[in-house]
Design brief:
One of its GO terms (molecular function) is zinc ion binding. With about 240 residues, the chain is α+β, with helices and mostly antiparallel strands. The protein has helices at about 5-15, 35, 120-130, 135-140, 150-160, 175-195; strands at about 25, 45, 50-55, 60-65, 70, 80-85, 90-95, 95-100, 210, 215, 220, 230. β3 (about 50-55) and β4 (about 60-65) form a beta hairpin. The radius of gyration is 20 Å and the shape is elongated.
């Protein structure tokens, strides 16, 4: 499933359609075709794992799930689930789910590391107030706290902050929590360029790796969230 930085890359690729009128909308999983057709695409934004298409009177959210993708001015052999035509140009989305929501929908940008409104302190407060007794490796995938954060980022930032994923949130020193949140912000933003260069996964420190430097990377499946977890136990401290 694409993580936040990948959705930002998608957003950047689609920005060239901003300000253009949709001459036709189609797709087998698109109940909003008539409402979208004839509308101008005001802007393309991202929030967490969602692509947001602004049509002035409403937003269309695009969720890519595990297998979603899109092509510009190209088609696959299978039918598109959602399509937008701009005269001779078009976007075909495959295996995506879309929703229509109101413009005043509350996307909390203060939790969005890609937003200028992001507030690290708000994330820390939410983490400690609601998830103090949870394992940090589990909470990092909670989209209500960390929109856009997926399993690659989860493993990498815990390693970079030297925190074991089985650590209980309220046992981790406040200074380390702040360090972790800052690393999440910096790593997420830096990932955009790596994804564009197609070297994001290959440049990881521990994700799907057997060793880091001369130390073993332990692989296991986190019991509650059922996600593959990669840990250098000689580096990452259990709190």
């Amino acid at each position: 499933m694409p993580e936040g930085p990948t959705i930002v890359v998608f957003k950047k690729r689609l920005e060239k359609f901003e300000g253009k009128k949709v001459t036709e909308s189609d797709g087998y999983n698109n109940p909003f075709a008539e409402e979208i057709s004839g509308k101008k695409l005001i802007s393309v934004e991202s929030y967490g794992k969602l692509l947001l298409l602004d049509f002035k009177d409403f937003l269309i959210t695009v969720h890519f799930g595990l297998f979603g993708s899109f092509l510009i001015n190209e088609t696959k052999k299978v039918n598109a689930s959602f399509s937008l035509f701009f005269g001779d140009d078009f976007i075909n989305f495959y295996v995506v789910k879309i929703k229509k929501i109101e413009k005043d929908h509350d996307f909390d940008q203060e939790l969005n590391v890609f937003s200028k409104k992001y507030k690290l302190e708000k994330t820390q407060k939410l983490l400690l107030e609601k998830y103090a007794d949870k394992k940090i490796g589990d909470v990092l995938l909670n989209q209500d706290v960390f929109p856009g954060l997926g399993n690659i980022i989860r493993n990498e930032v815990l390693f970079l902050s030297k925190i074991h994923p089985e650590s209980t949130v309220d046992k981790i020193p406040s200074k380390k929590i702040k360090e972790l949140l800052q690393i999440i912000k910096e790593f997420s933003k830096a990932s955009v360029e790596l994804i564009e260069q197609k070297i994001w996964k290959s440049s990881s420190s521990v994700y799907k790796k057997k060793e880091w430097e001369d130390k073993e990377v332990l692989e296991y499946v986190a019991p509650k969230i059922k996600r593959k977890t990669y840990v250098v136990e000689k580096v990452q401290k259990l709190y």
